[in-house]
């Protein structure tokens, strides 16, 4: 079904307008939501700041009261009299018993004036209670002497007695205990204590027990719509407005921690951070947490949670209202657009009809476009006429060009074929040249290894040859001295034959070492490493290099002599690296070789203390032609050949730096028994 351009443009305008209005509405909705949430967050921040300041002021008030008591002349006189052998204070001319009633009156006044204080005591330096006043249901009781207890085993006493004289002790918050049992009804308690000085020494301790339910106004917090949670410096709840059963769970062996319910709070415990703000958009909740220090080593974490769901409802009402206005605006815009577009598109319709005629004649017939309009459509009609004239001219030129194009293509094809043939020949020549170069370098690397081995044999033979020379000289001396009997001659032949056999075995090892394996065989990896070291040991010793072996027997199937060449190459490189490091610093050369079976694999590790490989070269050392040695001292094919040999034997090789040098790790498949 054909749809007119005016309808399409009208629909397009309607869609565009709809998207624009919806976008604008959503942006305003989002901004309103952010403003409200920020406002709620600011209010919550203000609330928690007010409450934390309230707690700080309460702590300051507690400190002031304990200071007042510690410097009170009556209490100081009582302590002086108590510590006097005759229970008498000559400074005030009073006895200890006379001071008791005066101090009780002082404590009575303080308990009466402070609703959260429920107990004031004086303890001597051994933890014995001297005076103890208790407030119970607004009735103040002074305990008799036979009801007083020893508190030397209590944590708050042990910590206070160690405090400096002028420092105020603030205890942890827990449930009050009497005679070792939790007191019921429970009293969440914080204790403020200070040492009373007696002649510059600790004379006694004054302690105030404070009910934090009253001191920190917990009942008011329970009635607030803002949920509040308070935990001590170990994370345990001391207040929970949604679940009071979790409060002081640690007193009953329960692991009720604020970090279990609100994991993001852990940041306050694990860092020096004092404030955390968190908005949960999914649950429409705002969290504000703050750390409040009671003393340098004790603090509380206060968390308050506000609900942001009220704004969501208001925002939805706002969105529903604006939707009605959007729908009405769209209908109005659509009608106006249809009428306007119909008037504007009449010339375009006429231009379309003309273009259809041109298409039917395939541009061969000249057609005049008769559209007069003083706007962009008029310009389009003029441009269309020019294009039509150019099209007719171009069609003639294309027909002429097509006739010559085929000949030109044929000519160029022949030229390309000729170039391609020459290029292929050049590539083959270069490839053959590179292959010959590789063969020469590999042969050179093998010859270098052979030279290394010949040098090793020379070191192996030096001592046996010296022994043979000495024995022959000794034989001559024996003959001259006429001590050459049959037994001496027999022993002489036996010793020298053993020496010659050792040298012959060395030749056999050398010959077998460079014999090319034609087929895979099964052999023990420990044996081939020991054979390789046998050939190298004298040379390594001559270079003052110690070899540490930790070899475990393990069977593998592969090309035995090739693997020995690979191991020889790695050991030779280690020797060169150690010699190079010795030029810069004095070290003892060490090469560690170990083998072990790991599941289906056999692991060979060769480690040296030659200073390691430049990290920039670690991923390049197995590439052909790459060498870190001076020019003329390395072909760059040694480790490349090692890698090729290991992979030909079905394994892989890795290299890494250690603190002292480099470690090569060879992984081969173990042969199952």
Automatic annotation (TrEMBL):
It is found in: Cell membrane. Its main location: membrane. Keywords: Cell membrane, Coiled coil, Kinase, Membrane, Phosphoprotein, Transferase, Transmembrane, Transmembrane helix. It comes from the Bacteria. Residues 391-440 form a coiled coil. Residues 342-396 form the HAMP domain. SUPFAM superfamilies: ATPase domain of HSP90 chaperone/DNA topoisomerase II/histidine kinase (SSF55874), HAMP domain-like (SSF158472), Homodimeric domain of signal transducing histidine kinase (SSF47384), Sensory domain-like (SSF103190). InterPro entries: HAMP_dom (IPR003660), HATPase_C_sf (IPR036890), HATPase_dom (IPR003594), His_kinase_dom (IPR005467), HisK_dim/P_dom (IPR003661), HisK_dim/P_sf (IPR036097), Sensor-like_sf (IPR029151), Sig_transdc_His_kin-like_C (IPR004358). The chain crosses the membrane at residues 9-29, 322-341. Residues 456-672 form the Histidine kinase domain. Its EC number is 2.7.13.3. Pfam families: HAMP, HATPase_c, HisKA, HK_sensor_dom_bact. GO terms for cellular component: plasma membrane. It catalyses: ATP + protein L-histidine = ADP + protein N-phospho-L-histidine. It is a multi-pass membrane protein. SMART domains: HAMP, HATPase_c, HisKA. One of its GO terms (molecular function) is phosphorelay sensor kinase activity. This is histidine kinase.
